[in-house]
UniProtKB/TrEMBL annotation:
The lineage of its organism: Bacteria, Thermotogati, Deinococcota, Deinococci, Deinococcales. It is found in: Cell membrane. The keyword GTP-binding does not apply. This is Transport permease protein. The keyword Repeat does not apply. It comes from the Bacteria. Keywords: Cell membrane, Membrane, Transmembrane, Transmembrane helix, Transport. Belongs to the ABC-2 integral membrane protein family. It is a multi-pass membrane protein.
C-alpha cells in the first residue's frame, strides 16, 4: 500500500511536469516530491498487525467450535434431554454449558494480549477496558453461533464442518491477512456482515492507534448487535429443538 501511494504520487507529479513543459516549452522538475510518513507501525512489523487478529481467531474457535461440539456430544449421549426434563430451564442448561468456555476464551485472549505486548513488543496505546468490552461482546456472539450450529446438526463431525464453513470465510473477509480496501465491491459489502472484521477494527484501533470509543462506536455497535442477535436465535432454537 505504501509503495502504491508513492508510485501514484510520482506518476501524478510526472504528469503535471509534462503538461507544464508542453505549455511553456521548458523542462521543469516535478512540482511534487512524495514523502510517505507512517503514523502507526512505522517499522512495518508483521506482529503488530497480526497479534490483534489472533485474539479474534482464538475467541472464534473457543466460542464456536468447543460449544457446538460439547452440546452435540451431550445430545448424542442422551444427557441433554435428561437435563431438560428436570425443573432447570433450557436457558439455564445452556448457560451452564457455555460458561466454562466463556471464561476459558477470556483467559486465552488475555494471554495472547500479554504475549503480544511483552514478547512481540506490540504497542498498546488505548484503553484496556474498551478492548475487554469488545472481547466480551465478541465471545458472547461466538458462543451464540456455536449453540445455533449445535441445533442444526446431529453429530460432532457435522458440527466441525459447519464451524469450518463459518470460520474460513471470516478469516478471508475480515481483513486479517488481506486489506479490505483491495477487495472487489461485492466482497467488500459482504465483509460488513463478518463479525471478525468489526472485532479487528476495534482491537487494532485500541492497541495500535490508541483510539477511543468515539472513533470506534460503529464496530462496537456492530459487535453488540451480533452478540444480541446470536444469543436470541440460540435461545429460540434451543427451546424449539430440544
Amino acid at each position: 500500500m505504501r509503495a502504491g501511494a508513492s508510485a501514484a504520487a510520482q506518476e501524478t507529479a510526472a504528469t503535471i511536469a509534462a503538461a507544464r513543459a508542453l505549455r511553456t516549452g521548458t523542462v521543469s522538475t516535478p512540482p511534487v516530491s512524495p514523502e510517505v510518513k507512517v503514523l502507526f507501525n512505522p517499522d512495518d512489523r508483521t506482529a503488530v498487525y497480526i497479534v490483534p487478529g489472533m485474539i479474534g481467531l482464538i475467541l472464534t474457535l473457543v466460542g464456536c467450535l468447543l460449544t457446538a461440539i460439547v452440546i452435540v456430544r451431550e445430545r448424542e449421549m442422551g444427557t441433554m434431554e435428561g437435563l431438560i426434563a428436570t425443573p432447570v430451564r433450557p436457558l439455564e442448561v445452556v448457560l451452564g454449558k457455555i460458561t466454562p468456555y466463556f471464561v476459558f476464551g477470556l483467559i486465552d485472549a488475555v494471554l495472547v494480549v500479554l504475549a503480544g505486548v511483552l514478547v512481540f513488543r506490540v504497542p498498546f496505546q488505548g484503553s484496556p477496558l474498551l478492548l475487554a468490552g469488545a472481547m466480551l461482546l465478541f465471545i458472547l456472539g461466538s458462543l451464540g453461533v456455536g449453540i445455533v450450529i449445535s441445533t442444526f446438526v446431529r453429530t460432532q463431525i457435522q458440527s466441525v464442518f459447519w464451524i469450518i464453513a463459518y470460520f474460513f470465510p471470516s478469516i478471508f473477509l475480515s481483513g486479517l491477512f488481506f486489506p479490505l480496501e483491495g477487495m472487489v465491491q461485492p466482497f467488500g459489502f459482504i465483509s460488513q456482515f463478518v463479525p471478525l472484521r468489526h472485532f479487528l477494527e476495534l482491537a487494532r484501533g485500541v492497541m495500535i492507534r490508541g483510539a477511543d470509543l468515539s472513533h470506534l462506536a460503529t464496530p462496537m455497535l456492530a459487535l453488540a448487535l451480533f452478540s444480541a442477535a446470536t444469543l436470541l436465535i440460540a435461545n429460540f432454537r434451543f427451546r424449539k429443538t430440544l
